[in-house]
């Protein structure tokens, strides 16, 4: 089995390598692939030196699986070329997510929809993944009418240059500006590009991807996405209105037995999810569970996950694991 990691030198790319190692992902040959300017670079991984190769050489090698984290335009151009030679592409960009011919997969929810002909599989947006994973067991039990979500997102979601901006500000240096404003000691109600309807692309991703993953266009979703000066993960305040009433103890036990979800909800002992404790973990953490007393059938929850893990690398590696488990590769 040949496995390619495309965009191996980026933040998500290195996280993918870390998760593959931790999960003992089985492969015979690993191809580390990146753009022209990184070709020829040596990367030491699991005690072995790997030379970074270019995309054309990687296609020629016909890997069985390629995990892409190289940006939308690279995915649009190269994913079909890999698919043509029979590679399963698992793509972290937004390029294919809303394409009706492509599956948008969070393995715990909808991996069973994947078939042998799904050669390009989209990994959802990080902030969407953690929210839908925590909501899924509750959706199954009570049905969802409406979701109102506000996010508090880590600078790692923007990439290494944004982390560098924040650290330079913190060190009192002149930063290379990635954001239109300072990020340290600040909060930006702005993630990705503003759309004609006044929402940002990130907000629209949360709205549209949630409906696609749940396979239900009747669910109402509204979202405000915000960048905050933290690194360990994304946090979300979620207000969810169910079709039926719920019992709080049952909500807790449904979440406790949901795969990939960990409940941290003991406010009297100051136990609740935080980015600093979710950092480098594969799971999604849920807490602050409480009834919204302002309207019926409505729950408030706080959801945190490492956006580079379950929001990107871990979810992608789990899709690859599913392909192997089901004998699709
Ligand atoms: C962010 N959702 O946090 C993006 C990363 N995919 O900016």
From TrEMBL:
<keyword id="KW-0521">NADP</keyword>
<dbReference type="GO" id="GO:0071266">
    <property type="term" value="P:'de novo' L-methionine biosynthetic process"/>
</dbReference>
<dbReference type="Pfam" id="PF02774">
    <property type="entry name" value="Semialdhyde_dhC"/>
</dbReference>
<dbReference type="Pfam" id="PF01118">
    <property type="entry name" value="Semialdhyde_dh"/>
</dbReference>
<dbReference type="InterPro" id="IPR036291">
    <property type="entry name" value="NAD(P)-bd_dom_sf"/>
</dbReference>
<dbReference type="GO" id="GO:0046983">
    <property type="term" value="F:protein dimerization activity"/>
</dbReference>
<dbReference type="GO" id="GO:0009088">
    <property type="term" value="P:threonine biosynthetic process"/>
</dbReference>
<comment type="function">
    <text>Catalyzes the NADPH-dependent formation of L-aspartate-semialdehyde (L-ASA) by the reductive dephosphorylation of L-aspartyl-4-phosphate.</text>
</comment>
<protein>
    <recommendedName>
        <fullName>Aspartate-semialdehyde dehydrogenase</fullName>
        <ecNumber>1.2.1.11</ecNumber>
    </recommendedName>
</protein>
<keyword id="KW-0560">Oxidoreductase</keyword>
<feature type="binding site">
    <location>
        <begin position="9"/>
        <end position="12"/>
    </location>
    <ligand>
        <name>NADP(+)</name>
    </ligand>
</feature>
<dbReference type="InterPro" id="IPR012280">
    <property type="entry name" value="Semialdhyde_DH_dimer_dom"/>
</dbReference>
<dbReference type="GO" id="GO:0009097">
    <property type="term" value="P:isoleucine biosynthetic process"/>
</dbReference>
<comment type="similarity">
    <text>Belongs to the aspartate-semialdehyde dehydrogenase family.</text>
</comment>
<comment type="subunit">
    <text>Homodimer.</text>
</comment>
<keyword id="KW-0791">Threonine biosynthesis</keyword>
<feature type="binding site">
    <location>
        <position position="175"/>
    </location>
    <ligand>
        <name>NADP(+)</name>
    </ligand>
</feature>
<dbReference type="GO" id="GO:0050661">
    <property type="term" value="F:NADP binding"/>
</dbReference>
<dbReference type="InterPro" id="IPR012080">
    <property type="entry name" value="Asp_semialdehyde_DH"/>
</dbReference>
<feature type="binding site">
    <location>
        <begin position="37"/>
        <end position="38"/>
    </location>
    <ligand>
        <name>NADP(+)</name>
    </ligand>
</feature>
<feature type="binding site">
    <location>
        <position position="153"/>
    </location>
    <ligand>
        <name>substrate</name>
    </ligand>
</feature>
<comment type="pathway">
    <text>Amino-acid biosynthesis; L-lysine biosynthesis via DAP pathway; (S)-tetrahydrodipicolinate from L-aspartate: step 2/4.</text>
</comment>
<dbReference type="GO" id="GO:0019877">
    <property type="term" value="P:diaminopimelate biosynthetic process"/>
</dbReference>
<comment type="pathway">
    <text>Amino-acid biosynthesis; L-methionine biosynthesis via de novo pathway; L-homoserine from L-aspartate: step 2/3.</text>
</comment>
<feature type="binding site">
    <location>
        <position position="307"/>
    </location>
    <ligand>
        <name>NADP(+)</name>
    </ligand>
</feature>
<dbReference type="InterPro" id="IPR005986">
    <property type="entry name" value="Asp_semialdehyde_DH_beta"/>
</dbReference>
<keyword id="KW-0457">Lysine biosynthesis</keyword>
<dbReference type="GO" id="GO:0009089">
    <property type="term" value="P:lysine biosynthetic process via diaminopimelate"/>
</dbReference>
<feature type="active site" description="Proton acceptor">
    <location>
        <position position="234"/>
    </location>
</feature>
<keyword id="KW-0220">Diaminopimelate biosynthesis</keyword>
<feature type="binding site">
    <location>
        <position position="227"/>
    </location>
    <ligand>
        <name>substrate</name>
    </ligand>
</feature>
<keyword id="KW-0486">Methionine biosynthesis</keyword>
<feature type="active site" description="Acyl-thioester intermediate">
    <location>
        <position position="126"/>
    </location>
</feature>
<feature type="binding site">
    <location>
        <position position="97"/>
    </location>
    <ligand>
        <name>phosphate</name>
    </ligand>
</feature>
<keyword id="KW-0028">Amino-acid biosynthesis</keyword>
<dbReference type="InterPro" id="IPR000534">
    <property type="entry name" value="Semialdehyde_DH_NAD-bd"/>
</dbReference>
<dbReference type="GO" id="GO:0051287">
    <property type="term" value="F:NAD binding"/>
</dbReference>
<feature type="domain" description="Semialdehyde dehydrogenase NAD-binding">
    <location>
        <begin position="2"/>
        <end position="117"/>
    </location>
</feature>
<dbReference type="GO" id="GO:0004073">
    <property type="term" value="F:aspartate-semialdehyde dehydrogenase activity"/>
</dbReference>
């Amino acid at each position: 089995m040949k496995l390619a990691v495309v965009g191996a030198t980026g933040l998500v790319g290195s996280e993918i390598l870390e998760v593959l190692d931790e999960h003992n992902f089985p492969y015979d040959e690993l191809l580390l692939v990146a753009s022209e300017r990184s070709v020829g670079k040596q990367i030491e991984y699991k005690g072995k030196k790997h030379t970074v190769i270019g995309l054309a050489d990687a296609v020629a090698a016909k890997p069985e699986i390629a995990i892409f984290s190289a940006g939308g335009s690279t995915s649009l151009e190269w994913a079909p070329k890999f698919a043509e030679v029979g590679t399963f592409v698992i793509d972290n960009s937004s390029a294919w997510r809303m394409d009706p011919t492509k599956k948008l997969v969070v393995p715990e929810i909808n991996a069973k929809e994947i078939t042998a002909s799904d050669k390009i599989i989209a990994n959802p947006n990080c902030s969407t993944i953690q929210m839908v994973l925590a909501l899924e067991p509750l959706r199954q039990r009570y049905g969802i009418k409406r979701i109102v979500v506000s996010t508090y997102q880590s600078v790692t979601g923007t990439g290494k240059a944004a982390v560098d901006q924040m650290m330079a500000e913190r060190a009192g240096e002149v930063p290379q500006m990635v954001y239109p404003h300072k990020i340290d000691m600040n909060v930006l109600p702005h993630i990705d590009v503003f759309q004609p309807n006044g929402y940002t692309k990130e907000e629209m991703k949360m709205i549209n991807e949630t409906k696609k993953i749940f396979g239900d266009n009747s669910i109402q979703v509204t979202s405000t996405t915000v960048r905050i000066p933290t690194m360990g993960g994304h946090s979300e305040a979620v207000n969810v209105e169910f079709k039926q009433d719920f019992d709080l103890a049952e909500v807790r036990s449904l979440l406790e037995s949901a795969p990939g979800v960990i409940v941290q909800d003991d406010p009297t002992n100051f136990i609740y999810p935080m980015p600093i404790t979710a950092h480098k973990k594969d799971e999604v953490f849920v807490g602050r569970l409480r009834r919204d007393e302002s309207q019926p059938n409505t729950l408030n929850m706080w959801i945190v996950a490492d956006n580079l893990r379950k929001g990107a690398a871990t979810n992608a590696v789990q899709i690859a694991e599913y392909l192997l488990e089901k004998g699709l590769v």
